[in-house]
From TrEMBL:
It holds the Pfam family HTH_3. GO terms for cellular component: cytosol. It comes from Pseudofrankia inefficax (strain DSM 45817 / CECT 9037 / DDB 130130 / EuI1c) (Frankia inefficax). The keyword Electron transport does not apply. InterPro entries: Cro/C1-type_HTH (IPR001387), Lambda_DNA-bd_dom_sf (IPR010982), TransReg_Diox_bact_type (IPR050807). It comes from the Bacteria. Residues 12-66 form the HTH cro/C1-type domain. Transmembrane segments: none annotated. The keyword Aminoacyl-tRNA synthetase does not apply. GO terms for molecular function: DNA binding; DNA-binding transcription factor activity. The lineage of its organism: Bacteria, Bacillati, Actinomycetota, Actinomycetes, Frankiales. Keywords: DNA-binding. This is Helix-turn-helix domain protein.
Length: 105
């Protein structure tokens, strides 16, 4: 099962680490306790929209961009764990099929 709070936490941690910033730096800028930010990043706490906006602001990231990234991650995780339904089309590859070659000619 995909947990949204875990996916949001992972996305926030990636952004923070990409900026080579510490939890302390971001928690101070976001005006949230270091321990709480750590729990949000680990997916142990569900952050409110106000808190997410504050953390995103501290990271210089638009909330919409973070949520779009998380939405994409959730979709991939769901597709990876989805069991095919009977009668449902199954997508194996996004590439077009190879052209048919007549070997008898």
């Amino acid at each position: 099962m995909v947990l949204l709070r875990r996916m949001i936490g992972e996305a926030l941690r990636r952004r923070r680490q990409d900026q080579h910033r510490t939890l302390r730096e971001v928690s101070s800028a976001a005006r949230v306790s270091l321990g709480y930010l750590s729990e949000v990043e680990r997916g142990q706490k569900e952050a409110s929209s106000e808190l997410l906006a504050s953390i995103c602001d501290a990271l210089g990231v638009r909330l919409a961009d973070l949520l779009r990234e998380v939405s994409d991650d959730v979709e991939l995780a769901e597709l990876a764990t989805e069991t095919p339904r009977v009668g449902a089309p199954m997508v194996v590859s996004a590439r077009p099929p190879a052209p048919m070659v007549d070997r008898a000619a």
